[in-house]
């Protein structure tokens, strides 16, 4: 997988599952990305509250979709809800390397060790380590890091990997069982690392 420069952009992003699914549906019907962009500008297909938010949803969702080979469209559309959410999470992780590292280094490691709890302390330690490794992360304010951690937890909850999204500091990790077609697709497209990331194996 391609590693991108670390970014705190996730503070502005949501999981955007319905928007992702709608976009894949339109692409599978033969619409181009340019067609969808125009449609969004003219009819606000995502039901966004402002024009700026509509543009942000389009640019983020399509950037995530483009991290995956288009052969995923039919598999995604014929999959159950849980698998569709894991496809969306995979695209979000490929789009955001800092988010990927968080899931790979913290959530996956917890699953490997048999621990099913994610705490705010785990998140703080992750960012502290990253600040020592990266000037970009070191330059981020504590407020931004707290928001990033909160965004990561929310996206993992919406993807089905965390049991709760309440404001308490401990969340139960839910280890997913991958659909066989999804797992095969990942391996066939050199994304075996995502199988390890999502299921907690070395």
TrEMBL record:
Pfam families: BrxA. InterPro entries: BrxA, BrxA_sf. This is DUF1819 family protein.
């Amino acid at each position: 997988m391609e590693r991108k420069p670390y970014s705190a952009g996730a503070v502005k992003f949501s999981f955007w599952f319905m928007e992702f699914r709608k976009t894949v549906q339109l692409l599978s019907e033969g619409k181009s990305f340019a067609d969808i962009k125009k449609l969004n500008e003219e009819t606000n297909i995502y039901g966004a509250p402002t024009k700026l938010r509509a543009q942000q949803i389009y640019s983020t969702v399509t950037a995530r979709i483009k991290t995956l080979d288009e052969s995923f469209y039919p598999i995604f559309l014929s999959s159950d809800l849980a698998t569709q959410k894991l496809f969306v999470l995979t695209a979000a992780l490929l789009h955001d390397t800092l988010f990927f590292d968080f899931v790979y280094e913290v959530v996956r490691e917890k699953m490997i060790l048999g621990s099913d709890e994610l705490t705010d302390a785990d998140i703080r330690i992750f960012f502290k380590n990253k600040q020592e490794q990266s000037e970009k992360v070191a330059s981020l304010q504590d407020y931004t890091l707290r928001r990033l951690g909160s965004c990561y937890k929310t996206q993992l909850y919406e993807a089905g990997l965390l049991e709760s999204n309440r404001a308490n500091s401990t969340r139960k990790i839910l280890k997913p069982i991958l659909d066989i077609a999804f797992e095969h697709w990942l391996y066939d497209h050199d994304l075996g690392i995502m199988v390890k990331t999502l299921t907690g194996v070395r």
